[in-house]
Each structure stands twice: as structure tokens, then as C-alpha cells.
Design goal:
Layout (H helix, E strand, L loop, with lengths): L3 E11 L2 E10 L4 E7 L8 H12 L2 E6 L10 H4 L2 H17 L7 E7 L2 H11 L4 E7 L17 E6 L3 H13 L4 E6 L9 H18 L3 H6 L1
Parallel strand pairs: 3-4, 3-5, 5-6, 6-7, 7-8
Antiparallel strand pairs: 1-2, 2-4
Length: 222
């Protein structure tokens, strides 16, 4: 059974709004992946927990939180406010970079749904902090204008039979100038409805993060 060096709910106050997230740090962890998801998902979802478990098995820490409070989620305007949600992700990322348990870790993002756009906006704003991005089945049209500004190595994972998402991913992929890869999972319409496909996406995510989120001191001295 996996044991954790640190495991706690972290409260973060942003403009008089209190957000909470779960920080899980396995022993000998070298990096941290912050989850960024859209309105169709939450930090308690099965899909996130499966990906989280895969990352933990590789010594990668995770932070999962909801960008809106329960009350804020009732407003569709809040759910579509990409500037607000991106700013919150930026704030939370910077906050964690100063946290005593995280300051020596390399940081990456895992974004899905609308959360992919927030992750892209934040990675562009924090180029010296974010080492990699994984975007899974994502609505990338919300951030296509930032594609050329992304510096962190970026992995795109998309279902072959989700024609709209596949088209958006291919367009975004062609616009990227950073190190990148698009992984199309064949013969599926959704990455998350089939357990086997979800585990495959988790494995792909873990392998990518394990390459690009190496030990910070080793990476800096290379």
C-alpha cells in the first residue's frame, strides 16, 4: 500500500473566497501535478482518482481542487469565465510553489474539459514554473490563440471517434511550437466512459509526466 509523506486539505484564500484542495505527496516524490478541470468534473471524480493513483505510483504528487465554490458553481457566467478561472489557477500554483512541502518539486498541469484552457493560460503566465502539461480530451478552442506561447512540453490525449475533440486537438497540435505529442486512442468515442480506456489514458499521462517531471536539482544541473 502506498504511503504518503504529506497528506492534507489545503485551504487557499483568493479575494475573500476560500478554496480547498487535497495535497498528496508520496515518499521520495520529485514533482507535483495540479489538476485543472471544467464544470463537468470535480476533484472527487473517478477519472481524476484513477489518474491520480497512477501518478502516485510513479512518485508524482498531486493537488486536486475545484476552481469555484459550490455557491459560485450555480452561476453559468462563473463557469464560463475563463479569465477568472485561469487567474485562480495561476494564484493556486504560485501559492503551492511557496508551500514548504512543494517548493522543491517540479510542477505540471493535467487539464481536461474546459480546464485544459485554464491550464494553458496558466502555463503561459508561469513559464518558469510549469515543466509540462497534459491535456486530455480537451476543448482547446478556448485557448488556440495561446498555442504559440506555450513553452512547456505538452501531451495531447484524445479519443479517435470524438470527431470534434480530435479536430480541435489536431489544430492545437499543429499550432504548438514547444516539444509536443498527440496520442490518439483508437476505436473509442470517449476517454472516460470505458474503464480500460481511462486506465490507458492514465498510463500515458504517467509515462509522459515521469519523463518531463524529473528531480528539480538534477534537471537544473544538467
Amino acid at each position: 500500500m502506498l504511503k504518503y509523506k504529506f497528506r492534507d486539505i489545503i485551504p487557499i484564500s483568493i479575494d475573500n473566497t476560500l478554496l480547498e484542495g487535497e495535497l498528496l505527496i508520496p515518499y521520495n516524490s520529485h514533482s507535483l501535478v495540479i489538476f485543472s478541470h471544467g464544470k463537468e468534473n470535480s476533484r472527487f471524480s473517478l477519472r481524476n482518482k484513477i489518474i491520480e493513483k497512477e501518478l502516485h505510483s510513479l512518485g508524482i504528487s498531486t493537488f486536486q481542487f475545484d476552481l469555484l465554490t459550490k455557491k459560485e458553481e450555480q452561476s453559468e457566467a462563473n463557469q464560463l469565465n475563463i479569465d477568472l478561472l485561469s487567474e485562480r489557477l495561476i494564484f493556486v500554483t504560485y501559492y503551492l510553489s511557496l508551500h514548504e512541502e512543494c517548493r522543491d518539486l517540479r510542477f505540471g498541469y493535467f487539464g481536461n474539459g474546459n480546464g485544459a484552457a485554464y491550464a494553458i493560460h496558466s502555463a503561459v503566465a508561469l513559464p518558469d514554473l510549469i515543466s509540462t502539461i497534459v491535456l486530455c480530451g480537451s476543448q482547446l478552442d478556448l485557448a488556440i490563440n495561446l498555442a504559440t506561447k506555450v513553452k512547456a512540453p505538452t501531451l495531447l490525449i484524445v479519443a479517435e471517434n470524438d470527431s470534434e475533440a480530435l479536430q480541435q486537438n489536431k489544430k492545437f497540435y499543429k499550432s504548438l511550437t514547444c516539444e509536443t505529442l498527440i496520442d490518439v486512442i483508437p476505436n473509442v468515442t470517449s476517454l472516460f466512459k470505458n474503464p480500460n480506456t481511462l486506465h490507458e489514458a492514465a498510463k500515458i499521462t504517467g509515462d509522459w509526466c515521469n519523463i518531463f517531471l524529473q528531480n528539480k536539482k538534477e534537471k537544473l544541473s544538467a
